[in-house]
Design goal:
73% of the residues lie in helices and 3% in strands. It has 441 residues and is mostly helical. The strands form two sheets. The chain has a two-stranded antiparallel sheet with strand order 1-2. A two-stranded antiparallel sheet has the order 3-4. The longest helix is centred in the last third of the chain and has 30 residues.
Length: 441
């Protein structure tokens, strides 16, 4: 067993910090503890690039865990602020104790084996140590009525393991406390059917494996799809899932059709995790905000976001399939179809069709009626966002490609400028919806 000095120090600091916060939560007022956690988060970000704090932050694996750690604790505390304190204690101790044990026991070499999950390699010993300690922590900190609910404990433990194994560069320091806090929040406020959740898990696992097997998604992309599918189905509900499912299935079908007809050359056809995230990150954000606020404006934002990414994908796939040439704003002339930032006649029609279909069906799914003036604003917002994406692709993506981080794509799973452009482009649907709603009242 060989430990790095920086790793030991960093993990011991995390463990001691968690224990200190645990003690403080029992002796200081809630708002004061919030200010202390917020101050610690700011301190961590301000000192990250200073050599004096190099041993605190840096390890040989270039982990960003010391940034994720305070941010995860802060998010957990905010989510659980108005809930009983034992929920926060549970998520805090799983992060501080279980994750530390997983890291140390994972260094044992004799008889150990490793598996590759979302990004990092995870050891069997580490996963076992994490699972056993997390189970003990849940039994120690949760009250009797929750400890006696075996299904609750099983799902909390399974969720905690997923949050840890799906980490990348220390991101479990955020996903563990924030993810467990979200689980506790939802189970506290909503009645949970654990048999239904079990059915979802058993249905999603083989479905996402098939997406990987048939080269629709990469391994990590299928894992992200599994998490998103569980979130929208189990937590959001079928009305949140259906627009996303319609976007994904239609986009995958058009992509495969275009590649089957025109061929793909050296261009990869399988979507990776970053492409999945880029298309749905704002939809997840708006749905989560609705869960916390119950404000219907976030439903409309969600519809606009999904309609925007649908419009953009349909425009790209159908436009390059039916048009030989497109118009480039950068060159102010025609270029071959499929050129980044290009605008074509059939691509524009496809974008308008995708935006309108998603907006109309999604609005009816959520509200059970057709409110055509709102649907029109949603459709136009998504359609304009598609053109904003094209503008960004024309004038921003090309410059980003010249940056050192993007000059050479290291693996199929690497993030690309196009992923960032898609994220920025789709969020403009929110801006256009607000603007058009204000104009037309």
């Amino acid at each position: 067993m060989v430990f790095q000095k920086g790793l030991i120090i960093r993990k011991l600091i995390h463990l001691s910090t968690g224990l200190i916060i645990l003690i403080l939560s029992n002796v200081v007022e809630k708002n004061l503890l919030l200010y202390l956690i917020l101050a610690g988060t700011i301190f961590s970000f301000l000192t990250f690039n200073y050599n004096k704090f190099h041993l605190l932050h840096k390890t040989t694996d270039a982990s960003l865990g010391t940034l994720y750690y305070p941010l995860g604790i802060l998010s957990s505390y905010l989510i659980l602020f108005n809930l009983p304190l034992y929920f926060f204690h549970s998520s805090l101790m799983v992060l501080s104790i279980s994750d530390t044990l997983a890291n140390f026991t994972g260094q044992i070499q004799k008889g150990n084996s490793w598996i590759r999950t979302f990004h990092d390699r995870k050891s069997i010993y580490g996963i076992l140590a994490y699972s056993l300690s997390a189970c003990l922590i849940l039994y120690m900190f949760l009250p009797d009525f929750l400890r006696s609910n075996i299904l609750f404990i099983i799902f909390a433990l399974a969720w905690a393991v997923i949050l840890e194994t799906a980490s990348m560069r220390g991101s479990d320091n955020f996903s563990i406390p924030a993810g467990l806090a979200l689980f506790f929040f939802l189970t506290y406020h909503y009645e949970v059917d654990y048999l239904y959740l079990s059915a979802i898990l058993f249905a999603l696992a083989p479905a996402c494996f098939l997406l990987f097997k048939f080269n629709i998604l990469t391994r990590r992309g299928s894992f992200v799809a599994f998490l998103l599918g569980f979130y929208f189905t189990a937590i959001g509900g079928w009305h949140w899932l259906m627009p996303v499912l319609l976007f994904f299935l239609s986009s995958a079908a058009f992509t495969k059709l275009q590649h089957a007809i025109k061929g793909v050359g050296n261009k990869p056809t399988t979507r990776n995790a970053w492409q999945v995230i880029a298309n749905i990150v704002w939809g997840v954000t708006s749905s989560a905000l609705f869960l916390f606020t119950q404000n219907e404006i976030f439903i409309l934002f969600f519809i606009a976001f999904v309609a925007a990414v649908t419009a953009d994908t349909w425009a790209s796939e159908i436009g390059s399939l039916l048009n030989k040439r497109c118009f480039s704003l950068a060159k102010m002339g025609t270029v071959p179809a499929g050129t980044t930032g290009g605008i074509s006649f059939f691509g524009s029609l496809a974008a308008l069709a995708g935006a309108t279909i998603i907006s109309s069906l999604s609005y009816y799914i959520f509200f059970g009626t057709w409110h055509w003036d709102i649907i029109a604003i949603l459709s136009v917002s998504a359609f304009i966002a598609c053109f904003a994406d094209s503008l960004l692709g024309t004038f921003v993506e090309e410059k980003m490609l010249k940056m050192n981080n993007f000059k050479e794509r290291k693996t199929l799973e690497s993030i690309t400028p196009n992923d960032l452009v898609n994220m920025i482009g789709s969020v403009t649907a929110f801006v256009f919806y607000i603007l058009l709603s204000w104009i037309f009242k």
